[in-house]
Every structure is written in C-alpha cells, then in structure tokens.
Amino acid sequence: MADGVRSYSETFAPYWHPVAFSHELKERPLPARLLGTDLVVWRTGSGVAATQRYCAHRGADLCQGESGPDGLRCGFHGWTYGQDGRCVRIPSQPGVPVPPRARLSAWSAAERYGLVWVCLSPQPAAPLPEWPELEDGSLATVPLPRLDWDVSAGRMMEIVLDVAHLSWVHKGTFGNPEQQEVAAYDVEKLPDGLRARVVYPALSPAMDGVPPKVDRTTLTYEVRFPFTARLAFKPTLFYTHTVYAVASPVSEEKMQCFYFASYHPRIRNFADMFTRSELAILEQDRLIAEGQRPRAHPLDFAGEVHVQADRLPIEYRRAVSALRLGRPVDAPGQE
Ligand code: FES
Ligand SMILES: [Fe+2]
C-alpha cells in the first residue's frame, strides 16, 4: 500500500452504513458484516442496537438468541447483554456480581428511511443522509431485495454514476443503442458529495404489440460520500420516481447494496413494475461489475484510462481517494 494511504476499514469506519432494511429486523436478531467485522443487530425496547456477534461467555452465535426490552439474550446459557454491550444477567449465578470482562463490543445504531444504520467509530465523520422528501410520509417507497455482489462499494457507486454504459449494458431494458455519444455535462461539487444532470433518450422495449418508444428522461445524480447515491428520474412517458442506492462495505472487495425507490402512492402498480424492471437492469450491471478487475476500488488514476464522458465517476473516485489519503475531498488530486 502506498505511503500515507489509510486502511480501507480505518477510512470508512467513521461513516454510517446500512446493515439491514427495517422490515427485515423483527424480533429475531440479525447477523451483519461491515468492514470485516461480524455484528448482530437487534431491536431494543425503544430502538436498535449493534453489538459483537459472538457471546463473550463461550462464543455462541447471538443471532440464535432473542432480543427485547431486557436486552440480547444468548441461546446457549441465557447471559443477557444491554445495548452498551455490558452483560447484565448471568442466570447460572444470580447472586454473584457480573465479571467486568463479560461484555460485547457495541457500536452506534440508528434507524432512518427504512434502513438500520451502524457506525463503527465512536465519532461519526458525517451525519446520516437527509432526504427531506421521505420525511412526511407523502411518498410511497419500494425496497428491492438486498443486492449481495462480489464488488467493492466504490466500484458499485461508479457503475451507478456511469453515464456512458447506459446504451451498452442496458440494451433490452432501457438502453438506447442509437445514443452512444455522451454529451458534455457539468458536475457540481457539494460540501459532502456531487451532483450532475443528464438527459438520456431511454428506449422502452416493444411490449404487447406496442412498438418501442424513446422516452427522454432527465436523470439527476446526487452522490454523498462515501457510498450513497440518489437518482431522480423524470421521464416523459414513464412515472417520475427517485432511486436510492446505498452500498454497504462488507470488505474492501465486497458490498451489499440497499436499493429502494420512492414514488407517488397514487401510482398503483408502480412497485411491481419497478421491482421487475429494476432487477433486470441491475442484473445487467452485476455481470459487468463482478467481472471488473481489480475488484478493489482503485485509488489512483494510473491503472485505467479516463475520458471526458467519465466525468462523474472520475470526480467520485477523486473524492474517495482523498478520503483514503486523509485529505479534504476537494483537494487537487492526481489524474
Ligand atoms: S455462550 Fe452465550 S451464554 Fe454461554
Ligand atoms: Fe447500470
């Protein structure tokens, strides 16, 4: 590793990452893996908690235990832990003080926008994302099943932000093979991310005897460092909707992406249509992304060749490289 480069987990531990959809976390604790750390996430009486996955007593998997207002109870001998990780009860010796070493590592956990988020560092470097349109319940949301891909979170973000691939990778879903040129577009730098807007002549395939149609779609990309993207789609024929893609780094070479859309609740069949078409689109992306080498997100610009059409992924990579180097994201980078 080059001098001055921080390790992958040291760089990204201070950010909030999703580890589950809220709807997945019921009364049973759930396993999660974030930046190489095994966790168990569970519901307390009033919120969510994230602690080390394996019991301090005899290493049992706490996902096999139960959670509730009293804490997280191990299935092996019933030791019970609070959300700060401290053991509060050892049923086999009720009258004896709990040994101080009977504790789990514990991290900050929060629930927002239908996701359970964890930060592995005591001092988050940035707050949770703000998506005001989701605050008042006026929009409906539809989550996809988790995307569990052998690809780094950085590479995932780059494919989400890639304009030039649409006409190639997404042939047959919405890609328009006639539109190979990428017109120049601006990338706006935000304090903690990037924004860009492009107009793409999406090609909706022929269906039920209806010929294919071109749908000039305005796409607004908004990325928030390190791994969160929001894409607003304003088509002329299909429904306006917004897609949220948050890549959660399992390790330097693997991520899970939490992907959902918001839409106007009066569009009755949106959830089914979106899920079907988006899963087909994402499968096209997965095949390309999992084939890329190196799997890890490259830190420098020397190993690949960059052109003007890659402007948004380039600016993104510049920022993530700055984070790895411990520099401000708008510091001049190498190209
Ligand atoms: S291993 Fe968990 S209580 Fe014994
Ligand atoms: Fe794509």
TrEMBL record:
Q: Is DNA-binding given among the entry's keywords?
A: no
Ranges for domain Rieske: 16-118
Q: Name one GO molecular function term.
A: dioxygenase activity
Which SUPFAM superfamilies is this protein grouped with?
Bet v1-like, ISP domain
- Which InterPro entries does the record match to this protein? Cholesterol_7-desaturase, Rieske_2Fe-2S, Rieske_2Fe-2S_sf, VanA_C_cat
Q: Name the Gene3D superfamilies for this protein.
A: Naphthalene 1,2-dioxygenase Alpha Subunit, Chain A, domain 1, Rieske [2Fe-2S] iron-sulphur domain
Q: Record's superkingdom? A: Bacteria
Q: Which Pfam families match?
A: Rieske, VanA_C
Coiled-coil-forming residues are: none
Key words of the record: 2Fe-2S, Dioxygenase, Iron, Iron-sulfur, Metal-binding, Oxidoreductase
Give a yes or no for keyword Transmembrane in this entry. Answer: no
Which PANTHER family does this entry report, sorted A to Z? 3-KETOSTEROID-9-ALPHA-MONOOXYGENASE, OXYGENASE COMPONENT, IRON-SULFUR DOMAIN CONTAINING PROTEIN
State what protein this is by name: Aromatic ring-hydroxylating dioxygenase subunit alpha
The organism encoding this protein is: Pyxidicoccus parkwayensis
Taxon lineage:
Bacteria, Pseudomonadati, Myxococcota, Myxococcia, Myxococcales
